[in-house]
Amino acid sequence: MRTFDTIITGGTVVTAADRITCDVGIKDGRIVALGTGFTDADEIIDATGKLVLPGGIDAHVHIAQPSGEGIVMADDFESGTRSAALGGTTTVMPFCLQEKGQSLRAALTAYHAKAAGECHVDVSFHLIISDPTDQVLGQELPALVEDGYTSFKIFMTYEGLALNDREILDVMSVARETGALVMVHAENYDAIRFMTEQLEKAGRTAPRFHATSRPIAVEREATHRAISLAELVDVPVMIVHVSNREAMEQIRWAQQKGLTVLGETCTQYLVLTENDLDGLGMEGAKYVCSPPPRDVASQEACWEGLRTGVFTVFSSDHCPFRYDDEQGKLTPKGRSSFRWVPNGIPGVAARLPILFSEGVMKGRIDLERFVAVTATNPAKTYGLYPRKGTIAIGSDADVTIWDPTCTKTLTYTLLGDGADYTPYEGMEITGWPVLTMVRGRTVVRDGWVVGAKGHGEHLARAKSPFAKAPGPVSFA
Ligand code: URP
Ligand code: ZN
Ligand code: ZN
Known about the structure:
Elements: E1 4-9, E2 12-14, E3 19-21, E4 23-27, E5 30-35, E6 41-46, E7 51-54, E8 56-61, H1 77-86, E9 89-97, H2 104-115, E10 122-123, E11 126-128, H3 134-146, E12 151-155, H4 165-178, E13 181-185, H5 189-201, H6 209-213, H7 216-233, E14 237-239, H8 245-257, E15 261-266, H9 268-271, H10 296-308, E16 313-315, H11 351-360, H12 367-381, E17 399-409, E18 428-438, E19 441-445, E20 448-449
Parallel strand pairs: 1-6, 2-7, 8-9, 9-10, 9-11, 11-12, 12-13, 13-14, 14-15, 15-16
Antiparallel strand pairs: 1-4, 2-3, 4-5, 7-17, 17-18, 18-19, 19-20
Helix pairs in contact: 3-4, 4-7, 7-8
């Protein structure tokens, strides 16, 4: 029997801390050796001239999520995880949405059934709490945290999802008591409804008014409120998909005050602006997501937050709908008002190439920071480290080999998801993931999916190291 199943030779191995030229030895799906001169393996992958990085972890994706009457998300677990693999991502963290009246266990059973046998990369669910009943908060949620569902998202906006401040405090209290991490979608629901009604009365119903209806103040206010509520119950909080400087500065302010407040930004806030919603007819619907893309100054702020550590995590918020489809962006109701256009854009495959090209290749962040925000920090934040998120002895052999010289023009057919467009169409990219390996098995090589679906597994997670030791909420 050979020493290794696979060796990756001659590449530059990069972690969140170091870069070093060495071979990687893999056995039974794990990294078992780092060194030089490895030869004894069933398979030898020559990575000379290439970068050997931990596989990406996309901690914020939506796959096969119910999205309102007549609307169907463009990805199931096969296509969503295929697209992830094509873009160099080896673990995705989709949301399991609790529908009103539904038990969390029932929601999870349904999502696991959809994912079973379909995934190309590993998967780990966050929960979305939309109905925080006594039963959910008192019984189900604590039990599920112990079962490895250690993070949950709450919404301050969206019909049917928004929690009021009292409900938010109740959910945060359970996180405090159990050691879980709360993720918050921070936009002020009442303010958005008010703005939307005003715009509709004025006949401003085209997709571009989606951005007008959710200005920066709406996000800044909710971000500050979420932080304040978390401070009251002494619980860490992750503010997801931050789009601009003012919201980012609320997080920085809290961090400087000593609160455990984490932040996430996403691809769209680095490279899109609200002008993208301005297209002819319904074209702008392709860019409708919440919070909306802002302006160039906001992009700069998001880069600053990534560079300086205000943002811990960089995600895609992949939430794909087909454009030319009445069950997608061109839902008939969407023509009457932007309020009915499904919120969300595809991006799980474009996330890493865009950050690599716009960030690393243009000198905005270094390679180590790239690895930190795309793999190591998501793994640490959500309780997957050190199994995932780094290249170290004992870690899963989740590896992406990058060719830093490879150039591509982004187009949706490269990306393999279920949508019929990409909001990043035409972007010139330098640097591309040429091989994606999940637990020692190559799943993508040179832009082709080579592994069969079903290799991806669900991961139960430890509690976040950012979370407090479980304990009662106390005002004594
Ligand atoms: O527009 C977005 N972001 N859709 C996805 C759902 C969410 O709020 O993350
Ligand atoms: Zn959200
Ligand atoms: Zn999202």
